[in-house]
Design brief:
Length: 188
């Protein structure tokens, strides 16, 4: 089954008329991206910014080829869709896979969106958990952090700004050692 469904194709006219980006859910192969690009070319001359939502085991396994195909366009991005991804790969592997996706995207100069439930408890109740604060610190490594709806949005944004500024300052001082990436070892 193609990642680009008939319903998706029906929505593309509206998306191209009203949005600057196309979030591509459940992308699994470079062929999926080529299909989307072809469908978009039939509608508009300038392809919108395509964001690959990495949320399946196949997308993780094929990330190097996904990035190479997506980078044929002038701009592209990756969203780490952590909710679905954790279910697909197992919660115990989520941290490892998030890091590998960040590293590969950094090497390719592809921006990353860190998504799913960042500071969710703070957003809904006004009080962050310790785990959420740590997670937000890790999210600061991405170029963009997606937050959900909630009644404490301003507090979430202030907290994210503070955590991000502190986290970035630490990363300048400490250098990470990149180990061989499991996602990429089978690519070549």
């Amino acid at each position: 089954m193609s990642s680009l469904t008939d319903f998706d194709r029906e929505c593309l006219n509206f998306v191209c008329a009203n949005a600057d980006t196309v979030g591509f859910s459940f992308v699994r192969s470079a062929h999926d991206i080529a299909d989307l690009r072809l469908a978009l070319q039939e509608i508009v001359a300038d392809i919108p910014f395509i964001i690959l939502k990495i949320e399946t085991h196949e997308a993780v396994k094929n990330l190097p080829s996904l990035l190479l195909e997506a980078m044929k366009d002038e701009v592209c991005g990756v969203m780490i869709a952590r909710g679905d991804l954790a279910v697909e790969i197992g919660f115990e592997r989520l941290v490892e896979i998030q890091d590998e996706i960040l590293w590969l995207c950094e090497a390719a100069h592809v921006p990353v969106i860190w998504a799913t439930q960042v500071l969710e408890n703070l957003h809904k109740s006004g009080v962050a958990t310790r785990a959420e604060v740590t997670d937000a610190g890790h999210a600061a490594r991405a170029e963009c952090i997606m937050i959900n709806k909630g009644i404490h949005t301003i507090e979430v944004l202030k907290t994210l700004r503070d955590i991000s500024q502190r986290s970035v300052a630490l990363r300048i001082k400490n250098r990470l050692v990149f180990r061989p990436l499991n996602i990429a070892k089978d690519f070549f």
